[in-house]
Amino acid sequence: MIERTLLIIWGIWLLVILVAAFRVFGFLFERRRQDRRWGNGTKNQQPVALILPVKGFDLQATPRFFDSIFAQNYRDYRVIVCFESWDDPVAAWLCEHLEVGPGNPVWTHPEADDGLRSVTLVCAGVSMGEGQKVHNQIAAFRDLTGNDAVIAFADADIVCGPDWLARLVAPINQGTHPLASTYRWLVPKRPTLPNQLASVINGSITTQGGGELTNVLWGGSMAISRTVFDELDVPSLFAGSLNDDLRLAKAARKAGHKIAFVRSLIIPTVVDFNWRTFFEFTKRQYTQVKFFSPILYTGINLVLGFYVLGAATIIAALVYGYFYAWIPVAAAYVIDQFRALARQQVYLSLFPENGIRQKLFAAGWLEHMLTPFWIILHWLLLASTWTQNRITWAGITYRIHSISKTQILHRPAITDRLPAGAPGLAMLGSLHDRKRGRYTQPIIPVTTRAEEQPITFTTATDDPTVAQSYDYLIPMTPTKAASVTSTSLGVIGLMISGASLYNPYEGDGSTVATQSNFSVKNVDGVDVWFLDDCSGHPTPMGQYHYHALPKCVTATVDTTDGPSHIIGIAFDGYPIYGDRDINGNQLTADDLDECNGITSVTPEFTGGVYHY
């Protein structure tokens, strides 16, 4: 009797694994069907109001996000940026570059034929009884006009292409669905176990979604027709709620409206977790699912719980020497291999960038070799939310009493300030170029001996890359941080030439600039390289910067076989040198720490100094 029961359990267990694998295989087929149905989203484009709730400023992510949002290939859209306070650094940054403020919060695009009509800043103030993000959105709703036929939403941590908006709202514009959404695929920034586990677990969720009966909305990218928005009375629906996407999805489905899950729009999201932040992130997500989508929460519990039950009985049978328990183990292993390969084909078809593909491939060993481990961990994290009703989100601690009642337990004061070296908006640089009638040309370095005069740079005629003034605070007595953090995009140091130093990556945060150099012909038919001979180029706003060791700078202070001299200072206060030690020997990566630094004697510091 026990043996028969175990065989039934194992049979159902394998069936669940097989169904999950077939859903991954079906993802690609359904994606192709959707692409044929909706195309690239250029048909029947209706006016869109795009609402962006934001908080804080990240040197790497924030400029890239707004540059992509303001460059959408869409016929008619306007952007509403909503935040808690005018003191928020992202608000200060936008005010500075768009030349708007509390008394004049609207920037209007000067070119009438551009798809982006305007950018409106909305200060929502402090939330008292709902999530701050939801509170910001409710404030943005008051700015909607009768011309806004579609309302779209995006989170400020997404990375989107120029066709993102058109493809997101295509199901609405073409009348197949009144609501549309997609989802994210977490990409490990570093190949650590928490990052890779987060990526694999998230990828398993992403490739299981898309059925008409189970689709929900994801607040990172979602849209709703104005007709359904008014029908559901979304401002009232959101009142008192912590959550926006699941709350709206549940109300829409209850009213009989279908939700489109746009598979080809899956968004790669780079994450860098440690164990604590990984657990907090997962528990925060599932606590919200528990309150705002209880049927989905119950279904996930049943599926993961049955998998754990099946795995536990197999382990117990093997411990007691039941040989035939190896049969479901072998069958599950084979299915896991096919499912992992199918999931690999999904992300290869979604993400053409080699950097993203390599990071996802590096996490694939968990899918091939340790599926039971990460699924059991997934279930344990889910089980930890069974009695939880408190979460911390964007620094604010909440208690969820119900779907329409939220209590704020702790709110930190806004102390962040706009960081030094924040770049400008690429859109404004392009406008500047078009007004001049030509585009920015690379600047040409002129190398001279340091003892004669500092390095200067000449510019092409009408080039906006001219002398600029910046204020930076650099510590005179630097101290090492307690933990290592990755450098951000934007300025990370200053060189003796007067130019800025950036990290090795381009705007996507993963493409190494020096490994992706290319040339185009300028108006005179001359090949112009993306990076010049000094490993540098200007931003759209004209800030010239280096992405690697600038040989034209080291040539002004170093001899061919001598030691490297100081060529710059990093924003943490430590000096920057070339690639030779005090004896003129070439340094290698093995000589440096994980920050590309070393403590050694230099010509300027005979007693030794930590430097890059």
Point out poorly predicted stretches: 438-462
The strands making up the biggest β-sheet line up spatially as 3-4-2-1-5-8-6-9
Q: Please report the total strand number as a whole number.
A: 25
- What is the number of helices? 18
Radius of gyration: 27 Å
Which percent band covers the strand fraction?
A: 15-25%
Structure notes:
The chain is of the alpha/beta class. 36% of the residues lie in helices and 17% in strands. It contains 18 helices and 25 strands. β11 and β12 form a beta hairpin. α1 (2-38) runs parallel beside α13, α11 packs across α12 and α12 packs across α16. The longest helix is centred in the N-terminal third of the chain and has 37 residues, at 2-38. The termini are far apart.
Q: What is the topology?
A:
Layout: H1 2-38, E1 48-53, H2 62-69, E2 77-83, H3 89-98, E3 106-108, E4 116-123, H4 132-141, E5 150-154, H5 164-168, H6 170-173, E6 179-181, E7 184-188, H7 193-206, E8 221-225, H8 226-232, H9 234-238, H10 245-254, E9 259-261, E10 267-271, H11 275-292, H12 294-319, H13 326-350, H14 354-362, H15 364-369, H16 371-383, E11 390-393, E12 396-402, E13 405-410, H17 426-436, E14 444-446, E15 456-458, E16 493-495, E17 500-501, E18 519-521, E19 527-529, E20 536-538, E21 544-546, H18 551-554, E22 566-570, E23 575-577, E24 598-600, E25 609-611
Helix pairs in contact: 1-12, 1-13, 11-12, 12-16
